[in-house]
Amino acid sequence: MDSVIYEGIQIMVLGMGTVFIFLVIMIVVMGLVAKVVAVINKLFPEKTEEMSSKAQPQSTNNEMLAIAIAVASSKQK
Fold first, then answer.
1. What is the pLDDT of residues 3-14, one digit of tens each?
2. Does 76 map to a domain?
3. Positive or negative: CA dihedral 42, 44, 48, 50
4. Which long-range contacts link 65-72 to residues 24+ away (Cβ below 8 Å)?
5. What's the domain count of the chain?
6. Is residue 68 part of a domain?
């Protein structure tokens, strides 16, 4: 009976050890990939659109709000 429990504990430790080693390897690889991506971003930066110096007029939704109110009030009658 004791040998069955001992074998079960061995299998449990082996399985947990395998998962732990996999997680450690995954964390190391993710760190390396992050460093590689940072270097690639420095070499090939993304193109950004420049904002025009002209101020664009602030549009309000007053017209759309008036239309929505008109449509809603016409459906109630």
1. 999 999 999 999
2. no
3. positive
4. none
5. 1
6. no
